[in-house]
Specification:
It is a single chain. The chain is mainly α. 68% of the residues lie in helices and 0% in strands. Helix 1 packs antiparallel against helix 2 and helix 1 packs parallel to helix 3. The radius of gyration is 11 Å and the shape is globular. The protein starts with a helix and ends in a 6-residue tail after the last helix.
């Protein structure tokens, strides 16, 4: 299953945070806004957001 355009952009934003091991509040807000842009968070977007949240909670990514 391929990602939508917004899903691709969301993945890019999350990958940047993973590569940097740091996410700023502004980047986090951008990610949430991108996920909510179409008014619906689909299952792929939910999975990506959950993955990001786990990485923040386990301190793989610093907030």
């Amino acid at each position: 299953m391929t990602l939508s355009e917004s899903g691709d952009k969301l993945r890019e934003l999350i990958n940047k945070a993973i590569e940097d091991h740091v996410i700023t509040p502004e980047e986090y807000d951008s990610i949430l806004n991108m996920a909510n842009q179409d008014g619906h968070i689909d299952s792929q977007e939910q999975a990506m957001l959950k993955e990001l949240q786990i990485m923040i909670e386990t301190k793989m990514i610093r907030f």
